[in-house]
Amino acid sequence: MASKTPKLPPARFVRSVLKSFMQDSGLEPRLFGPHLRITNAQEGRVDFELDIQPHHTILHGGTIASMVDLGGSLAVASNGLYATGVSTDLNVTYIGSGGKVGDKLRATAVLDKIGKTLAYTTVTFYNDKGEMTARGSHTKYVRAAWNPDLPLWHAPEGAPVAEEEPEGNGEAKSS
């Protein structure tokens, strides 16, 4: 079936999925708001960062766990799926301090494998010194996310779509 929406490049598509989370979810806009940004996205990988705010305190472990959940979902989206499934397993290992108010926490989410039923992702976190501070894994049930009426890399009609980024500003080419 032909889609009524345009095919989006990976970075814009993933930013559109994040925009829908920020618009439709209860958690992401309250916990992260405008302080979380996707810095790069390509098929199978998403880089993002969070400016640590006073309400994050000394980067609470629950904030990092929420970022594993969000990062895993964005990694699934980096495969072209607008719906990203539901969590079946989430694990976080805390290695060191993520930072304090005013610092940036950088993260990379990787789609390790996706099948018809499950998707497996890994998210790693680094502080301002470049030290790994945490790593997480996130498994998602994606069977219902495969929509034959919505081609990959297309947002559903009426869904929020992120603005285009200037060239060289996160629009990584897919491999």
Give a topology summary.
Layout: H1 10-24, H2 28-31, E1 36-42, E2 45-51, H3 61-77, E3 86-94, E4 104-114, E5 118-126, E6 132-141
How would you sum up this structure in a few lines?
Belongs to the thioesterase PaaI family. By secondary structure, this protein is of the alpha+beta class.
Strand content: 25-35%
**Strand count:** 6
- CATH homologous superfamily (4th level) name: Hotdog Thioesterase
- Alpha-beta classification: alpha+beta
What is the string of helix and strand elements? HHEEHEEEE
Using the 3D structure, state the CATH architecture. Roll
Task: Please name the defining characteristics of this protein.
alpha+beta; Thioesterase domain-containing protein; Thiol Ester Dehydrase, Chain A; fatty acyl-CoA hydrolase activity; ACOT13; disordered C terminus
What do these coordinates show?
- GO terms for molecular function: fatty acyl-CoA hydrolase activity.
- Strands 1-2-4-5-6-3 form a 6-stranded antiparallel β-sheet.
- It has helices at 10-24, 28-31, 61-77, and strands spanning 36-42, 45-51, 86-94, 104-114, 118-126, 132-141.
- It has one domain: Roll (Thiol Ester Dehydrase, Chain A).
- It contains 3 helices and 6 strands, in the order H-H-E-E-H-E-E-E-E.
- By secondary structure, the protein is an alpha+beta fold.
